[in-house]
Amino acid sequence: MKLTHLPSEFQKALPILQKIRSAGYEAYFVGGSVRDALLNRPIHDVDIATSSYPEETKRIFKRTVDIGIEHGTVLVLEEDGEYEITTFRTEDVYVDYRRPSQVNFVRSLDEDLKRRDFTVNAFALAPDGEIVDHFGGLDDLEHKILRAVGEPKERFNEDALRILRGLRFLASLDFELEEETFSAMKSHAHLLEKISIERSFIELDKLLVAPFWKKGLRAFVDCEAYRYLPQLENQAPALLAMTEEMADTAFDSSTQAWAALLLEMKCQNPKGFLKAWKTSSQFQKEVTAIMAIYELRLGQSADRRLLYHYGKDLVCLAERLREAKGLAVDYESIDTIYKALPIYDKHEIVVNGADLIKQLGLTPGPSLGEHLSAVELAIVDGDLANDRSAILEFVRRRQDE
Ligand code: ATP
Ligand code: MG
């Protein structure tokens, strides 16, 4: 089969392929971008594979960076962009189920395609548009089937991360799992315990924010992968409830998706959960904030204090969760209240602690902090103007109480 029209991302990179070819080597586009081009989906990161060894690739181009040279990847810097070029390779026995013990560079495209995970990820695209398809990937693409390359059990035994990758491809592509691939996922799911949490997080996260996340999550439960991942071992009911109770819409952000999951689990220690998944503290902060807003909103409408404290973006993310769960929403009030807030941060208050000490003879300590908090809330509530004399008067009155 031949692609008659190469998407612009490929066209732009064609001179790179041509240059490698004129130096006497093979060069192809490979990986997810070829799959996405065939599906008429938007393309991101164009991957180039070549028979030239890294040192040889570096000799072909003026400016290169060794970004992953031990894996065979060289970054080529051209005026119009950067291109990752990876030498054809095979991967030897996987000792610890995590990383291939050794990467071998090879001259054969066929060998390189064989080590790839799924048939629809194992295409190569030549500069003239010809598609190399050794594993029936075109057929699978047409029937929307996700099938492991080669013997599924062997492939998941080599690298169990492929189980989660497969689930997230279901969720992003809206494909179905081929039967043997599914049963191998199930029989090898326990090997996920050996995969690094960071790598598992990336895949589960991609699954959750994908448009067909429900499909991915159901398969995640069906193949029992959840049983071998941190803090999810008993969560099949919550995972399924999520797919049943929420609207089909995609999540707006990954923090929102994880907040939805933790709310569904009625998780008592979200920070602990997210720590177990080794997420960043910024991520933990955002997820727990969305959860807190969601829970507060169950008993009250969005008000000035909520918007001041959390900001509009997080309140809207929580409101969208309400929407997905069929609860009443009020984006208009959120917008109006937020726009009308007298201040957005306490540093905007025209009087600070030092002023209170100087003007009113207060001393540093807890009571000063309490006065300042009271000022802040009164301003946010609209009961006090952000004005020097009004604030000093307000504190003076509090002192007398
Ligand atoms: P995306 O569109 O999300 O980038 P992708 O298919 O490009 O999806 P990548 O993680 O970017 O996925 O990997 C690029 C290619 O490398 C894949 O298409 C696949 O051929 C191969 N690949 C990546 N990870 C693995 C793996 N664990 N086992 C086998 N092949 C893999
Ligand atoms: Mg990719």
Automatic annotation (TrEMBL):
Binding site for ATP: G32, R35, R116, D159, R162, R165, R168
The enzyme's E.C. designation: 2.7.7.72
InterPro entries: Bact_CCA-adding_enz_type3_sf (IPR050264), CCA-adding_enz_C (IPR032810), CCA-adding_enz_firmicutes (IPR023068), NT_sf (IPR043519), PolA_pol_head_dom (IPR002646), PolyA_RNA-bd (IPR032828)
Poly A polymerase head domain segment(s): 27-147
Stretches of the chain forming a coiled coil according to its record: none
Cofactor: Mg(2+)
Pfam families: PolyA_pol, PolyA_pol_RNAbd, tRNA_NucTran2_2
GO annotation terms (biological process): RNA repair; tRNA 3'-terminal CCA addition
Domain CCA-adding enzyme C-terminal: 251-395
Transmembrane segments: none
Catalytic activity field: a tRNA with a 3' CCA end + 2 CTP + ATP = a tRNA with a 3' CCACCA end + 3 diphosphate; a tRNA precursor + 2 CTP + ATP = a tRNA with a 3' CCA end + 3 diphosphate
Positions of CTP binding: G32, R35, R116, D159, R162, R165, R168
Repeat among keywords: no
Entry keywords, A to Z: ATP-binding, Magnesium, Metal-binding, Nucleotide-binding, Nucleotidyltransferase, RNA repair, RNA-binding, Transferase, tRNA processing
Matches recorded under Gene3D superfamilies: 1.10.110.30, 1.10.246.80, 1.20.58.560, Beta Polymerase, domain 2
HAMAP family given in the database record: CCA_bact_type3
Family: Belongs to the tRNA nucleotidyltransferase/poly(A) polymerase family. Bacterial CCA-adding enzyme type 3 subfamily.
Subunit structure: Homodimer.
PANTHER family: CCA TRNA NUCLEOTIDYLTRANSFERASE 1, MITOCHONDRIAL
Its job: Catalyzes the addition and repair of the essential 3'-terminal CCA sequence in tRNAs without using a nucleic acid template. Adds these three nucleotides in the order of C, C, and A to the tRNA nucleotide-73, using CTP and ATP as substrates and producing inorganic pyrophosphate. tRNA 3'-terminal CCA addition is required both for tRNA processing and repair. Also involved in tRNA surveillance by mediating tandem CCA addition to generate a CCACCA at the 3' terminus of unstable tRNAs. While stable tRNAs receive only 3'-terminal CCA, unstable tRNAs are marked with CCACCA and rapidly degraded.
Record's miscellaneous remark: A single active site specifically recognizes both ATP and CTP and is responsible for their addition.
Name of the protein described by the UniProt record: CCA-adding enzyme
